[in-house]
Amino acid sequence: MSLTTPLAGKLAGLQSSAIRDLLKLTARADVISLAGGLPDAALMPRERIAVAAESALAGAAVLQYTESPGLPALRAVIAARETARIGRTVPVDEVFITHGSQQALSLLAEVLLDPGALVIVEDPAYVGALQVFRAAGARIVAVPLDSDGMRVDVLEDLLIAGERPAVVHTVSNFHNPGGVTLAPERRRRLAELAEAHGFWVIEDDPYGELWFDQPAPDPVASYSPQVIRLSSVSKILAPALRVGWMAAPDRVCRAVELLKQGADLCGSALTHQIAADLLTDTDWLVAHIDSVRQAYRARANALVDAVRTTFTDRVRCTDAAGGMFVWADFTDGTDTSALLPKALEAGVAYVPGAAFAVSDSYRNSMRLCFTTSDEAVLAAAIDRLASAAR
Amino acid sequence: MSLTTPLAGKLAGLQSSAIRDLLKLTARADVISLAGGLPDAALMPRERIAVAAESALAGAAVLQYTESPGLPALRAVIAARETARIGRTVPVDEVFITHGSQQALSLLAEVLLDPGALVIVEDPAYVGALQVFRAAGARIVAVPLDSDGMRVDVLEDLLIAGERPAVVHTVSNFHNPGGVTLAPERRRRLAELAEAHGFWVIEDDPYGELWFDQPAPDPVASYSPQVIRLSSVSKILAPALRVGWMAAPDRVCRAVELLKQGADLCGSALTHQIAADLLTDTDWLVAHIDSVRQAYRARANALVDAVRTTFTDRVRCTDAAGGMFVWADFTDGTDTSALLPKALEAGVAYVPGAAFAVSDSYRNSMRLCFTTSDEAVLAAAIDRLASAAR
What's the complex ipTM? Predict the structure, then answer.
């Protein structure tokens, strides 16, 4: 029995996520990991989910197959939430539930991209998106981030130079890995460019509700229906519900529906019902999300304070404004990939910038995740990093 | 804003499932539907699942992201069950959990098929597989079923004529839609041909445990590691767990793992844990599956008896041996697609054979599902069918 050629071919076209491989190395108990990208399970509403599960399982309906676009009750509450978020009516037919927002990305890539189509991503990039666009055979061009998010002026230069993207992907709020948020004026301009040039914007927004001191700006989607919005309950409730969604024009949702049938038929009526229950319990939900925000804000501030106090101007890092990540650059030429083995030896892990690099190398950068350690541990982590970098 | 060309192109390449569209028409309360393909929710172990959910939610671990190949505890119990089923050791690394076995099919098509690759399916075919293989751009050739399952001699003729399939797909037990089971000698021969010609067999086995009077024969996979086995808990526990799996050589599982990361990252640790709990509760499980078998056997017998008594030699139908479906042929030239509107008027629905046709037209055939009606209702359904066909 021999490996068939197609299998070998497919393997060559894909890369395992660098973060996943790294996580395997950083699972040692004596290492404080700032390398993960996981929300804190201790902050997830376990007891409320248990109540919702018990209530859902009072009837047998949640055990059956459900509709490919998702349980109607869940789509209804998400349509209402998206309507409030983007400031125009999002009909239920324009909400499609996916198995996490990663599946929305993957089905959208199939629907919107032919091999060789141009996709614009941010640099540094969300690797889950990069993996999907690469697998779709897209041509990928990166536009850098600055402290106001995607450099929309660089995108505009590309358009003026004749580039014709099919899709522009942006993590608009509290970027993974970049930590920054797209400024309101850039959002408006990005939407205008999408309409003028006929490309789709995929606004990937898993972190928007995890703001610390002030809410995230109006979504890019609030400026144009040419913007497909993705989000999920993974960061505010629990990843194990596997509930993500897209808010997209009806014809996009119907094309995605055909693909969803072939991909996995439908989602879980049980986890959809649990998510719908929690999302409609508004008073509880507001208080719950607020408690997650407060915990993450305290951790993010502790991390950023420790970095700034310890490294002063040797490391420049983003503000702790929301989300799960801080992006930090050594200003003295320290190579973060070369530093990593020493950091692991000192008992701290992070993800080197190179793991997220598309055009730039981000050789002096690193992504630091603050979600799963408390303030004292985060301070200790930065102490260890300082000793490794000495 | 205009529909982009790729979207229109993708749409042209896909067909919505004829069954799904039909189901929308047959949801009327006054219609007895034999058209569905759903297991009976009333037979699903709702209370046992509620206990398992409560137990799983005693800890926060089940709320987090899990590994792409599935929760280790679930993979372990399935490896043990597959080992017992196929009679050789299936290591945990060769078990990969998917979002229902439909996702296993869809990821395997990506891994094993290049556009234009030849896939052999059965005629009539499982439409979920057909949809996946068509979307993958495969060339599809059908081999007919008879009362002993796939005509492996016809497959052999194709191989002698020089056809070189990459994949042969078979629903080996209690075929959907054909109702038949592949005979043991044909299983052995199919496995020999796979080894001799280097193709993969995908043995799609969601119904194997739903036998009525005698267990299904040894799996095709028991004869060769060139056979990838798919199954799920959807028909024995509940579809909403969205737990399917493949048992496949390690290099196939690793290729699927890369695709799974891009497709949707991972499954739900919560529903995986619930499934693992139920599958390891052996005494309970044996009794539960037995009760489902007994209920379906009584329904299947009632349906088959009613068809044979009512139509005598005007309709020939498969025996009630297991699974969820009976396949029936009008021997007098009655066109089942033409009959359907009259049948709906008389208050009964079925799926015309044409919906499953690949090469043959199956114009005089129909698929009857017996899972969700009791014996009296099934008898009434056949009465209505007889009046429509008069």
Answer: 0.94
